[in-house]
Design goal:
Blueprint lengths: L3 E5 L11 H15 L3 E7 L11 E3 L6 E5 L2 E11 L6 E6 L1 H4 L11 H19 L5 E5 L6 H6 L6 H4 L3 E6 L8 E2 L17 H5 L2 E2 L1 H8 L2 E4 L2 H6 L10 H6 L4 E3 L27 H13 L10 E8 L8 H11 L3 E8 L1 H13 L4 E5 L3 H10 L2 E4 L9 H7 L3 E5 L2 H6 L13 E3 L4 H15 L2 H12 L5 H16 L2
Parallel strand pairs: 1-2, 1-7, 2-6, 7-8, 8-11, 11-12, 13-14, 13-16, 14-15, 16-17, 17-18
Antiparallel strand pairs: 3-5, 4-5, 5-6, 9-10
Helix pairs in contact: 1-18, 10-13, 11-16
The structure holds adenosine-5'-diphosphate.
Length: 486
């Protein structure tokens, strides 16, 4: 039976994305729409969105609407935009005072107000459109007050929200959106101080994500293993006890991959297509990328790739000694793409300076280069400290680029350590968060790469994996059905 789903997110690929949240929001909602569910997707109209050529228009009867967040008064309008290459239209919440900023996220003092406004705008629009959702699905700290708003601020509207169940997805528990208790008034109207977490308030803070964990009808996270890890003191970042208290209401659903976007047989960004039956194109892509980056190398020289936010979470600390050592002692090439914390960027730039023609770092965001690296590299490096799901290791598998991952979160759910004796496994998986372990993993990869039949087996095992959204989407649908009884 088709369900009415209101989906709220700070990011939505390709319009606004800093990482997995954008990809997952887009892929999941596209899947649900294709399955015939009735969706209303709300995303901010961010100032830096690339919307040239996108079909979009104002929603006539939803213009210049008042919106209150605490004592702040705003006006917002709604636009509808068609997601490129689909029949799905989403809503962009146009409120320049809050969203016309140079970046999607900032550390401005009104950061919590911006996303409370988005969340409230979704409720207000549902009311004005006469859309009574079966499910209100919100994501990460930005929209984490949705379950509480549903129970308190909008509970009076039984006609619209009396039957609504809330789902909250944790894409990354490392970012909880904490702000000062002095701003408690901003959570209103309709939510009094007594509804907020009292211990946090006493400690002078408000934690949006904690409220979602407590109030949502179901809490999902993006891999089964991460669902276990966040219930432990090491992985829970202070929310583990609240998560444990929710028992079976917390579930892990491994993200899918959008194979319309990430598929070496059709990828629009790569010059040479290839697939399971013929890998010639992969070699040609490697040559093309090495030429482009002016990194001459023999065809069998291993190319190690990395695409990552440059944050502590991503395990860059483990590479500070290992990568220079590797480049100094072995015949390898390295290409990195990413941006983030300045000291990591300096490290990456330093590699390029120290090893010209052997290492290249592109600082910034490039969809095109990301696809090209996946298609060209032999080995993909993802040594994360923690990783809720991770997408690049799954892209790598599809592209025949052997992933080196740490056994954490979704990496452990999606990559199995290869065993040359049995020929089973899809990558190289190490356990300990130390440089010795990464060194071992890289040495192992380079050794296996020297045995063409073993390497080929490993590459093909990965390419045969299927992480399509059909599986993940069906799990979300089952959850929605269980919650709503529909
Ligand atoms: P996270 O959400 O923690 O950043 P994920 O692996 O879940 O990590 O998702 C990251 C997504 O963002 C992937 O699609 C990856 O290709 C993309 N990405 C990250 N950094 C860049 C970049 N500098 N340029 C292009 N794509 C990037």
């Amino acid at each position: 039976m088709p369900l009415r789903v209101c989906f709220v997110s700070a990011e939505y690929s390709p319009f606004a994305k800093t990482g997995g949240l954008g990809d997952v929001s887009a892929a999941l909602t596209r899947h649900l729409a294709r399955r015939g569910h009735d969706l209303r997707v709300f995303v901010p109209l961010h100032g830096q969105m690339e919307l040239a050529g996108v079909d979009r228009h104002p929603v006539e009867f939803l213009q210049s609407l008042p919106l209150r967040v605490g004592q702040h008064e705003f006006r917002f309008s709604l636009q509808t935009a068609r997601v490129p290459d689909t029949q799905l239209w989403i809503y962009l919440v146009d409120c320049p005072a809050l969203f016309d900023r140079p970046r999607i996220y900032s550390d401005a003092p009104d950061e919590h107000v911006r996303y409370l406004a988005l969340t409230r705008a979704a409720f207000e629009c549902c009311q004005r459109m006469g859309f009574a959702p079966d499910v209100m699905h919100s994501n990460d700290w930005h929209t984490a007050f949705a379950p509480l708003l549903l129970r308190h601020a909008y509970a009076w509207d039984r006609q619209m929200f009396g039957g609504t169940r809330s789902v909250f997805t944790i894409h990354n528990i490392g970012y909880q959106g904490v702000f000062s208790a002095a701003q408690a008034g901003d959570v209103g109207p309709g939510i009094g101080i007594e509804a907020l977490h009292q211990l946090d308030l006493g400690a002078g803070r408000i934690n949006p994500m904690r409220h979602a964990v407590i109030y949502a009808d179901a809490v999902t996270t993006v891999s089964p293993n991460y669902a276990v890890e966040i219930r432990t003191p090491e992985g829970g970042y202070g929310l583990d006890a609240d998560l444990r208290a929710r028992g079976d209401a917390v579930v892990g659903i491994l993200n899918g991959v959008d194979y319309d976007e990430w598929n070496p047989t059709t990828d629009r960004y790569i010059p040479h297509h290839y697939g399971l039956d013929d890998l010639t194109g992969k070699l040609l892509n490697k040559q093309a990328l090495l030429d482009l980056l002016r990194m001459p190398a023999a065809p069998n020289t291993p190319l190690v790739g990395m695409i990552s936010r440059l944050a502590r979470q991503k395990g860059i600390d483990l590479l500070l000694d290992v990568l220079p050592e590797l480049l100094a002692t072995r015949e390898v090439r390295f290409v990195g793409l990413g941006s983030g914390e300045p000291h990591y960027e300096r490290f990456m730039h330093g590699l390029q300076e120290r090893f010209p023609g052997r290492a290249t770092f592109y600082s910034g965001y490039s969809e095109e280069l990301a696809h090209m690296i996946e298609a060209a590299a032999d080995i993909f490096l993802m040594p994360s400290l923690y990783e809720p799901c991770g997408l690049n290791q799954m892209y790598s598998l599809k592209y025949g680029t052997v992933p080196i991952v740490r056994r954490t979160g979704g990496l452990a759910d999606s990559v199995q350590h290869f065993d040359p004796a049995t020929g089973q496994g899809t990558g190289i998986v190490f356990n300990d968060f130390d440089s010795g372990a990464v060194r071992w993993a890289l040495d192992t990869a380079l050794e296996w790469q020297g045995w063409p039949t073993v390497w080929r087996r490993l590459v093909l095992n990965g390419m045969r994996q299927d992480f399509s959204w059909d599986r993940a989407g069906a799990e979300y649908e089952r959850l929605y059905q269980q919650l709503t009884g529909k």
